[in-house]
Amino acid sequence: MFRRVYLDNSATTPIDPDVVKEMLPYLTEKFGNPSSIHFFGQEARGAVDKARHRVADLINAKPNQIIFTSGGTESNNLAIRGLCEMNEKYGKHIITSRIEHPAVINVCEKLEEMGFEVTYLPVYGDGIVRVEDVSAAIREDTVLISLMMANNEIGTIQPVRKVGEIVKDCRKNGNKIWFHTDAVQAAGKIPIDVGEIGCDLLSLSAHKIYAPKGTGALYSGRGVRLKPQNLGGHQEREKRGGTENVPSIVALGKACELAREGLKTSFDRLRDLRETFEDGVKERIPGVIFNGKPDTRLPNISNVTFNHLEGEGILINLDMQGIAVSTGSACSSGSLEPSPIILALGQAEDLARGAVRFSFGKENTLEDVEYVLEVLPKAVENLRKLSPGYQSAPAV
């Protein structure tokens, strides 16, 4: 029997038992509709309000600045489309980066079809957007800057505070410009303070912080006007129509509370696991590249390029031995496309195809890392024996 090791926590996390315990009553006897004025409805309303306070506390916001959504994707849609469509009279230019999540990139591409112009900023070999590039891209008609707080594949933390300062200075000069950050991967991993960052909009997702899938939140700061994308009711201060998913909102609130209370301990533990893993890979496997700036990454993500290998081959091999990881590649009609994030770092396509993400979580242990370090070198060695060009290729 092999060991089961889940190292794909950046894709989704298991639900924390304390989160399950908190939400269960709202799946059974506490079933009221929060919009109803009777006891059952107000009981549910109280639970939603409590969760709103807990989410706000995680990012140092006010409860009335939190909008509950169906997840990070909807939060990004509401933030970007909602802001741009409501404020297009001030400008139709958007600034974002080439390493954003598809939930940002695809929304920007849709807005381009609607007449908006988008500047996609590059990153460099370290996976970081340059602040000077942000400044240089701003125009009189720039209405929104959307820059993720931390990348979902390589974990690089972006200079969002400095971008917030730039936006603040632009406003002093009379510009109508807003700042959104996708914090889906960062929440619960690093401290977040919307006041210090200076963002107007911030996206969160429940299933990245040990709560159920299908729930998220959007922070919307003072004076931000959004065009609703979900019509049909007066919920969420008329920003997002639809009956609230009370059990999952309760779960998100509890998960945010747990994340805030355990942030420092969690950060140190995850960083130690990641560094132990990376040290072991360096010692045992030649021809690897660790993607992203080493000292400016989330503590739980390690993205490794294995020279002259396909990431999918490593993924399948590890899965057969009980280890779950992921790649940035996507299978489509039988063809493999390298991760656009890894390509944005400047890696050639053949190298980019060999990128694998290992993402650690609260349930992982040192024994898990030791097992992976026992299995991974053998898997890489066996796969490289089948790689025609590896033996004669120069070392990376």
List keywords for this structure.
396 residues; alpha/beta; Aspartate Aminotransferase, domain 1; seven-stranded mixed β-sheet; four-stranded antiparallel β-sheet; 14 helices; 15 strands; 15% strand
Explain this structure:
This protein is α/β, with parallel strands linked by helices and 396 residues long. It folds into 2 domains: 17-261, Type I PLP-dependent aspartate aminotransferase-like (Major domain) (Aspartate Aminotransferase, domain 2); 263-385, Aspartate Aminotransferase, domain 1. The protein has helices spanning 17-23, 39-59, 72-86, 102-113, 131-137, 160-172, 194-197, 235-238, 246-261, 263-284, 311-319, 340-344, 349-352, 366-385; strands at 5-6, 66-69, 93-97, 117-121, 142-146, 178-182, 201-205, 216-220, 288-291, 301-306, 323-324, 326-327, 330-332, 335-337, 355-359. The protein has a 7-stranded mixed sheet with strand order 2-8-7-6-5-3-4, with helices on both faces. A 4-stranded antiparallel sheet has the order 9-10-15-12. Helix 2 (39-59) runs parallel beside helix 9 (246-261), helix 3 packs parallel to helix 4 (102-113) and helix 10 (263-284) runs parallel beside helix 14 (366-385). The two termini are 35 Å apart.
Q: Indicate the radius of gyration in whole angstroms.
A: 22 Å
Known CATH architecture of the largest domain: 3-Layer(aba) Sandwich
Low-confidence stretches: 329-335
The backbone outline, from C-alpha atoms, is globular
**How many β-strand runs?**
15
String of helices and strands: EHHEHEHEHEHEHEEHHHEEHEEEEHHEH
- Indicate the CATH class of the largest domain: Alpha Beta
